[in-house]
Amino acid sequence: MPKVIIVDNSTRDAERVGKLLARDGAEAELCQAGAAAAQLLASAPAGFAAVFILWELAGPPVGAELLALCRTRWPQMPVVVMSGSLDASLATRAFALGARDFLEKPVEEKRLRGCLQRLLATHPETQEFNDLRQQLIGESPAWLATLREVVKVMAHADARVMLIGESGTGKELLAQAIHRNGARAEQACVAVNVGEIPATLIESVLFGHERGAFTNAVSKREGLLEEAGEGTLFLDEIGDLAVDLQGKLLRVIQEKKFRRVGGKVLLDFKARIIAATNRDLAAAVTQGAFRRDLYHRLAEVTIQLPPLRERKGDVELLLRHFLERNGGVRVRRLSREALTILRSYPFHGNVRELENLIKGAVIACDGDTVLPHHLPLQSMGTFLNTAEVAPANPPTDEGVDPERQALQREVAQSLPARWLEMSYREAMQFYVQAFDRRYLPYKLARAHHNITQAAKDAGIDVKTFRKRWEDAGLSPLSAKEGSDE
Fold it and tell me: How much is the pTM?
């Protein structure tokens, strides 16, 4: 991650600037002007990615001295001058001494971010971070912090990495990203879920075997250690590896050698290992279920993946991404009501559950818009520990007309699980829109798809009819229906 230094006698101002810079992938180090700043600069022989210096007209000429020091020792290091007053002569002097930019305090966020992006446009770590942001969906602070850790790892092709996170958080995606963006990208990336392979087969799968090594070993087989070559071996759910095999894997890491089952020839192991788990391996070590020495060997670098419930703001981005991927040209959007329900859902299965939910909704959808009743509200309600979601097919009263029965189902399926906790206006809109989804198409059909006549029959004007139709999330009116003839 690119490191920048912020020199400002106001700790509050410096921290604010540092937080803004961190959002764009820079690691900020704060210090006060004077000797402390000069010492910090001197401690970094290669300099920093950028330096932000406070320069005030009043008081000692500290800003000018630090700027001159930077220009002398690190001519290519960009320096930005900040000042509490916009003074033309000060700005002129700063640019004359080699400053790249001049910012007036308090610094506007948009101005600061634009400045940083220009300064770091060619910085290699910034480019890698931005590439990752394009590959892995998410803009929440928790997710961006994870990506910054991944960028650090990508520069070290031999470091073993332990990815820790709940099921469905994207551990394999991160492992692939580390491989794809690292020095081993041209080599193989071999993945195996240790927990899915029977205990009697896992050794053969990993190490391979010679012909006749055991019953049914009718021919020689290369194992995954061999297939990985000089690339990456991803061991998912490493916590499920049997204790006896933990010792054998530790020996491979230590000696960089292994034998196939039943074999005598030592083979070289040159791949990088990335392991992943959803278990608390530290607790497993304490309980004796996982070897301490293997844990420390595998976890040279540890990256913790945040659960989706901690990635505020990413749910909607992911929903739209998966809808675009799975909806094709037919299903194009989520209704406002469906989106509201999904925003409040905890997604205990994380990103994987979100993607599967969208796939199911696309299959259930009979138009171009996913509506609340296309969602698996019953199972979602169970996870929310609430009985407020009515059955999909509630019992009907004898003699009740079919349209009323349909409306009852529509309302029951449209109300979010915690609708009683909402404000009156929020909860009522679900009821009204469910009503409109039944009432308006019925009126339009009765009017032979003439919107003017349908609006007249409903006792509202055409503009209101159109607005309520759109708010209900109904499929867009066809050219014929939309005409007012």
Answer: 0.62
Task: Give the helix/strand (H/E) hosting 254.
Answer: helix 243-255
- H helices of 74-108, where? 88-96
Tokens encoding 106: 């308090």
The 10s digit of each residue's pLDDT in 118-139 is 777 656 666 777 788 889 999 8
| Tens of pLDDT, residues 4-54 | 888 887 888 888 888 877 777 677 888 876 677 777 777 766 667 788 888
Question: How large is the C-alpha radius of gyration of the chain?
Answer: 30
What CA–CA distance (Å, rounded) separates 99 from 81? 7
Residue 276: Cβ within 10 Å count: 26
Asked whether the beta carbons of 250 and 288 are under 8 A apart, the reply is no
CB 304 within 8 A of CB 146: yes
Question: Element (H or E) spanning 175, and its range?
Answer: helix 171-180
Q: Give CA angle at 70 (117, 18), nearest 5°.
A: 40
| CA 47 – CA 43 distance, rounded (Å) | 8
E-strand ranges in 231-383 read: 232-236, 257-258, 267-268, 272-277, 301-304, 333-334, 369-370
Instruction: Determine the pLDDT at residue 359.
Output: 94
CA dist 20 → 48, 105, 141, 183, 251 (Å)? 17, 14, 11, 31, 46
Alpha helices in 345-461, H assignment, sequence order: 350-364, 377-383, 402-414, 424-446, 451-458
Q: What pLDDT score does 276 carry? A: 97
Predicted confidence at residue 312, as pLDDT, reads 81
